[in-house]
């Protein structure tokens, strides 16, 4: 399996290298769909220039990356193109290995369940076979590397690619069961953009599951491990924040990075839901609605963790998707990360109900973004409402996509415990309805 | 969520839609056409009104007195033009300077990709002369433009005369809060393109021009004046700009308001307004006016010198004096007063014109149809494509899997990505060939065939277009093996969705173009299958192909302009339209030619491919 993966990496790198050299390389970084105020390369360059002049990089209210990123690019800014390509490759390989390992676990569990005859007899067709699972890791890597969204994001040199790499490494470490590395990468991801904080719950659930510790409030082993993991996570987060402080010897970055993410002062249009809403709002409601919008991102963690506590990896997928839909400055690079997981849920295909509709809407919206942007900004004939309408539709489609996968996952689990052919009490064939 | 999640209701709805698919599609098509034709009916349209406050209530007085002197200047200009045999640059500079303007010149050269036979030019060399009247009352951050073309022969001399007369008169006034730029551009749009690119420091189409030495503020509005006789019977307003872009409706309202106030006959598309909307002839008059606008807009070319301003977010229109045999004549003084009034009102603007509509069609100068009213006509056509998609989904079996309980589930046998991808790639390669080859291969064609360069370009384009029709057989050979029943359905699914997105995007940018293409492409996209009678379907498909649509449009346009042409002339006109389309793309960056060649034509080829699926 190494050969196809290598080939895939070569193809992906070639596409990116060609695009870096083409005339598109100047156009793409200007697209608001691809870069946000948080991760635009232009702003990194500005920050580096300020740093070289001995001024705080946050002085001009342009730069909003974390201090570690700016020191990282301080050394490698000449090789930025290679760094971004390597970040994409790293993400793909990490996802590949993670999904491979995860599939092994799933298969082992399924075997035990079969041996214990826990599945109803008519569910045999729902059982996953090694044959169909063999290519899934490769498909995941392919979905990430060849996704136009990832390619655009990489060519724009959006630092979103680096955040994705960190999250992918976190997933890999979690799946491999290394709780220390998992905590460190989770802390790094949180340090980068706050929102991955919600991945704490699934990671903890997965590691507990791996150590056969039941989620039980009365058990001391549960509390012991939770404390241990929390401590590792908070400790590494603390180290990173302090390191940032010592690098710049000021706390400026806290308000410039995290304040910027949470209070959403920059209302440049993007594919998210914040900008239009807050541009239209009266100033005195702003604080309240910012709280509502931000809590919205974190809130789903609780119900989803309860519902999916047996399936932490699917929970990670759901969380990443929710973050990329509801975060304050989303770009297409964030979407690419959760879309890479779709092949891992291939077996849910038969239970998906709107996948075709949703994918058509997503495609149509992706083509309409530049058209309406042109009409609004260049031709001046349309206005922001047109663009926001498409943004809304795009996000509704994403939400439908995610909820469709969620429902399909639950339904498959339901069938695995209750049998595929459900009967009503009177014996007629029953159908499941979500209401 | 009920409809999306309840399988029973979904099944019922899908069943209903698939069973009634054909009648619903026919109904939608007819309704779309009827809706569109209904737009010209007066009770369904809105009366135009001035939305911009700054231009509405403020009173201005027009006192321009010097029409006769302007005509004399025009005659002097004509004499100098004849003497120099082109633009009399020195005379213009001197005259403008003597009228107290800051005068600058800009020279430009442009080599056309192939000779333009309509205007007989290939290597273009020229000079723009412009004078800036600095605003006495405000910081010079904004500007207005009045332009007149210096054209071949005896045309537009009066326009230049009037422009100079107005310059002199405006100089003596103290109201101006915006710089006024008086521009005389040579070689119509090519000169205008050079000047605008120079003004805005851009270079989109690779022209060669000297940088501008003087600038005013950011341009808020522009008018282009075309006047070829001493007296006129009516003024015609031209709105259609590059890529079908239109100026803000308030500019048209302003023109109409002043025509009413001063008592000048005004037309749009060369057609007077009529009051008998309830009679058949009245309706057909309005419909003709609107159809002319639709056809002009769909062509995507600038229909006057103002057309290129729109690209820079500047509201602009052309005003054309028409002298016909009508009794009632208007003299130059009156036109001068009209322009004075319009500039005084534009001078009052506090921000760019943005209050009124940008998307509209005009069945007459005092009536308009806004986007909300005309979009349903396109929507009804687009719905047909979506219904067909739904129908195909049921056949291909994607819908079944989530409609029913898993017991009746069958995994759709996927027809292989390769068999779908091959036709898609080949059609697009043909499109790329159609886009690039005509200009690249003109030299070779001229060497081997007895044709001129222009003919070579047009004929190569037509040859490649026709050669594309032979493709299905080649594609089939490449496929190695039988195309399956599933195969063409999936291909059609792809083609339908592609067409729907494509037409939707086109209609957003240029409604007219999108609607005309939808009118011809939607029926074939809807009915085409490999099982329809081959010869008949092939004939219908060719007759409704984008190229033939263009041919019909040429005839209809001539018919509507009341200058019907014979078949022979129509064909020649068709050829020149193609060459103009290619030139417009190369010179001004019009998007219609690349859109047709790179996207619409390949899409049509996909449908053609389905017909010959074996």
UniProtKB/TrEMBL annotation, chain A:
Compartment list: Endoplasmic reticulum membrane
Stored PANTHER family: GPI TRANSAMIDASE COMPONENT PIG-U (PTHR13121), PHOSPHATIDYLINOSITOL GLYCAN ANCHOR BIOSYNTHESIS CLASS U PROTEIN (PTHR13121:SF0)
Claim: Cell membrane is one of the keywords in the record: no
Keywords, alphabetical: Endoplasmic reticulum, GPI-anchor biosynthesis, Membrane, Signal, Transmembrane, Transmembrane helix
Annotated Gene Ontology cellular component terms: GPI-anchor transamidase complex
Pfam families: PIG-U
Major localization listed first in the record, in broad terms: endoplasmic reticulum
Keyword Transmembrane carried by entry: yes
Protein name (Swiss-Prot/TrEMBL): Phosphatidylinositol glycan anchor biosynthesis class U protein
Domain of life: Eukaryota
InterPro entries referenced in this protein's UniProt entry, alphabetically: PIG-U (IPR009600)
Pathway: Glycolipid biosynthesis; glycosylphosphatidylinositol-anchor biosynthesis
Entry similarity comment: Belongs to the PIGU family.
Membrane topology per record: Multi-pass membrane protein
Gene: LOC110527652
Spans traversing the lipid bilayer: 82-99, 194-213, 233-251, 257-278, 285-306, 351-373, 385-407
Upper lineage: Eukaryota, Metazoa, Chordata, Craniata, Vertebrata
One of the GO BP terms on file: attachment of GPI anchor to protein
Species per Swiss-Prot/TrEMBL record: Oncorhynchus mykiss
TrEMBL record, chain B:
Family matches, as InterPro entries: Gaa1 (IPR007246)
Top-rank lineage group of the source organism: Eukaryota
Pathway membership, UniProt: Glycolipid biosynthesis; glycosylphosphatidylinositol-anchor biosynthesis
The entry's keywords: Disulfide bond, Endoplasmic reticulum, Glycoprotein, GPI-anchor biosynthesis, Membrane, Transmembrane, Transmembrane helix
Topology within the bilayer: Multi-pass membrane protein
Entry's localization field: Endoplasmic reticulum membrane
Transmembrane parts of this sequence: 20-41, 381-404, 416-436, 456-475, 496-529, 535-557, 593-613
One cellular component term from this protein's GO annotations in UniProt: GPI-anchor transamidase complex
GO BP: any one term: GPI anchor biosynthetic process
Subunit structure, as described in the record: Heteropentamer. Part of the GPI-anchor transamidase complex, consisting of PIGK, PIGT, PIGS, PIGU and GAA1. Interacts with PIGK.
Function field: Component of the glycosylphosphatidylinositol-anchor (GPI-anchor) transamidase (GPI-T) complex that catalyzes the formation of the linkage between a proprotein and a GPI-anchor and participates in GPI anchored protein biosynthesis. Binds GPI-anchor.
Stated name of the protein: GPI-anchor transamidase component GPAA1
